[in-house]
């Protein structure tokens, strides 16, 4: 098969299952989706016991939650009984769990479920400081990493651990003890590996995104403060995660905290809470009393179509592709990267009912779109161009959309890109790290990314820029700054070129810089950096095809607001290729 024919097959099938030529591969993440289960904390706090845990375990099975994918029964804070003063051995609470924990772990496993436990990266737990559970003083992992890991995962056979950080944060422990997050979580991960267990999931609970290093040591990580059962809490957590899609990758996940579904939120708020957690690939840890859950909440938690979005094999977090006032449209590929099927949510954060015209081209879909309503679990007809969606206050609508045509994405917002030094723990100037400003109303999508550069790792990178055929492209960078600044552009790791004298006149005015580059067929990585000085604030990247590889000429004609290009100059072996119309960069290409 010639190189020309291989390129054309990609264009013609548009299935992207053949993208293996020219070293194009799509890395497959682990088959494990976000953690699904139950945690004791939201309803019970430190007031737990063996009987309660057994009852919740039995309810997960009897209520049908196990059957739809929930697996983990997680014992949170409150089981501790201090430490043996001579050996340092962790002790279990003498009245809450008088028989220890081994029996309850065996009980959980015997029902086909997995068992989770809790600890802290420092000396003390959060419950010992904030909940008056003073028996929890001194029981954290600090100075006992390997001893406790062996106890939890070799002796007791737990499968999951949530590692809090009250004992390492001065504002959360009476000793005003400060620990380095990266050092502590890395050491704990190493201790778990030393047990010989490769199946243990660790959740790092630092209450803010700790840094891009975290994906190397944890399965999931909290990105927010603790949730509580109020709309303000749910809304705030969603806002914090709207622009973190780039940090959910390779089968590791942003954790939006445990679920409050089935407690005291309204039915619409419960739907938004669960639906957004699903489409953003957050862990799904039920926090209510499963023995007494109402039927509406139970049906929601068992919605297989929403769960399928959460557990989808691509392991992607939805990103914002359209913003209309206080409403957001979030979208992600499901089942196949760059395919014809996507899932999208229309989220109304406001206190009033809103109607949104959802634009399909904003989510890179065209032609007739076949829709399915994931909340109602029924087909929702077809649409072309746009879909008018009315969403109640605090509400969300979620659909899957199957299109006739997949468009090449042309607009890549800066807030969907990966920042190499991104973190939310320390001042972004003392440790140069980019931030997203979602109050930039003069920018596309109402957002921009600032404080980039001044460090080799503080780069901005779009690592999913897709080209169907490869070829010559025009890149347009929209930026803002009030003085001359520069940045280096690197495409697919090749030698960077310097983009100098960038000055829009102010941080409230957008200017553009255009450069032509060569992209390969498949995914491309476009990086902007400046290791020594601050870069401009970035609004977006626009990608436009100028000349496709191996296509010599086009004969064009207008049709349905698109230009149809009939390919010529193709190799003789192309005569048996399938006829059809395919869309590249909003251009229809016709194979007669």
Q: Would you state the CATH class of the largest domain? A: Alpha Beta
Counting helices, strands and paired strands, the structural category is alpha+beta
Strand percentage: 25-35%
Taken together, the total number of domains comes to: 4
**Average pLDDT across residues?**
90
Low-pLDDT regions: 1-30, 554-581
How are the strands of the largest sheet arranged? 9-8-7-6-5-2-1-10
The CATH homologous superfamily of the largest domain: Aldolase class I
Helix content: 10-25%
At the fold tier of CATH, the topology name of the largest domain is TIM Barrel
Largest sheet: 8 strands, parallel
Distance from N terminus to C terminus (CA atoms, Å) equals 21 Å
- The CATH architecture classification of the largest domain is Alpha-Beta Barrel
Total helices: the number is 11
| Rg on CA atoms, Å | 26 Å
Number of strands: 33
Shape: globular
Account of the 3D structure:
The chain has 592 residues and is of the alpha+beta class. The chain folds into four domains: 1-29 and 551-592, no CATH class; 36-297, TIM Barrel; 319-406, Golgi alpha-mannosidase II (Immunoglobulin-like, Sandwich); 411-548, Jelly Rolls, CATH 2.60.120.260. The protein has eleven helices and 33 strands. It has an eight-stranded parallel beta sheet with strand order 9-8-7-6-5-2-1-10. A six-stranded antiparallel beta sheet has the order 11-12-13-18-15-16. It has a five-stranded antiparallel beta sheet with strand order 20-23-28-25-26, with no helix packed on it. Helix 9 runs parallel beside helix 11.
């Amino acid at each position: 098969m010639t190189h020309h024919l291989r390129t054309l097959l990609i264009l013609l099938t548009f299935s992207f299952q053949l993208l293996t030529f020219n070293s194009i591969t799509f890395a497959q993440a682990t088959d494990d989706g976000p953690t699904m289960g139950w945690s004791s904390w939201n309803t019970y706090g430190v007031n737990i016991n063996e009987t309660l845990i057994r009852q919740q375990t039995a309810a997960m099975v009897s209520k049908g939650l196990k059957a739809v994918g929930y697996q983990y029964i997680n014992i949170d804070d409150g089981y501790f009984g201090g430490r043996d003063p001579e050996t340092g051995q962790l002790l279990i609470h003498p009245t809450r769990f008088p028989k220890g924990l081994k029996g309850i772990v065996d009980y959980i496993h015997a029902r086909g479920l997995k068992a989770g436990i809790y600890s802290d990266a420092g000396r003390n737990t959060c419950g010992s400081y904030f909940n008056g559970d003073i028996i929890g003083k001194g029981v954290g992992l600090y100075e006992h990493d390997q001893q406790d890991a062996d106890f939890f995962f070799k002796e007791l056979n737990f499968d999951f651990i949530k590692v809090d950080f009250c004992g390492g944060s001065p504002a959360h422990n009476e000793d005003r003890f400060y620990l380095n997050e990266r050092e502590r979580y890395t050491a704990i991960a190493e201790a778990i590996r030393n047990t010989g267990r490769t199946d243990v999931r660790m959740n790092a609970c630092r209450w803010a995104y700790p840094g891009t290093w975290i994906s190397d040591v944890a399965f999931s990580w909290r990105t927010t403060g603790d949730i509580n059962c109020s709309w303000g809490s749910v809304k705030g957590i969603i806002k914090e995660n709207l622009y973190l899609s780039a940090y959910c990758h390779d089968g590791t996940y942003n954790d939006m905290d445990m679920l409050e579904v089935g407690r005291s939120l309204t039915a619409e708020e419960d739907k938004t809470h669960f639906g957004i957690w699903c489409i953003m690939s957050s862990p799904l840890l039920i926090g209510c009393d499963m023995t007494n859950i109402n039927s509406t909440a139970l049906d929601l938690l068992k919605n297989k179509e929403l769960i399928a979005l959460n557990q989808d094999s691509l392991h992607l977090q939805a990103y914002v592709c359209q913003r209309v006032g206080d409403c957001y449209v979030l979208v992600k590929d499901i089942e196949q990267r760059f395919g014809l099927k996507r899932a999208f949510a229309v989220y109304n954060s406001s206190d009033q009912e809103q109607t949104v015209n959802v634009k399909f081209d904003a989510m890179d879909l065209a032609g007739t779109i076949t829709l399915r309503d994931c909340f109602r679990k029924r087909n929702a007809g077809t649409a072309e161009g746009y879909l008018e969606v009315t969403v109640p206050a605090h509400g969300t609508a979620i659909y899957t959309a199957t299109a006739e045509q997949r468009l090449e994405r042309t607009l890549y917002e800066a807030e969907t890109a990966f920042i190499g030094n991104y973190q939310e723990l320390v001042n972004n100037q003392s440790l140069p790290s980019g931030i997203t400003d979602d109050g930039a109303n003069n920018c596309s999508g109402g957002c921009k990314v600032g404080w980039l550069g001044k460090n080799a790792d503080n780069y901005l990178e779009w690592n999913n820029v897709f080209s169907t055929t490869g070829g010559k492209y025009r890149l347009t960078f929209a930026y803002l700054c009030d003085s001359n600044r520069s940045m280096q552009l690197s495409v697919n790791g090749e030698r960077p070129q310097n983009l100098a004298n960038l000055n829009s006149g102010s941080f409230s005015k957008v200017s553009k810089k255009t450069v032509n580059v060569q992209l390969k067929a498949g995914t491309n990585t476009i990086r902007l950096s400046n290791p020594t000085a601050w870069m401009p604030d970035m609004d977006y990247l626009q990608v436009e095809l100028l000349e496709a590889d191996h296509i010599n000429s086009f004969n064009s004609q207008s049709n349905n607001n698109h230009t149809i290009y009939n390919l010529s100059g193709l190799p003789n072996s192309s005569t048996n290729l399938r006829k059809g119309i395919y869309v590249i960069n909003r251009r229809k290409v016709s194979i007669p």
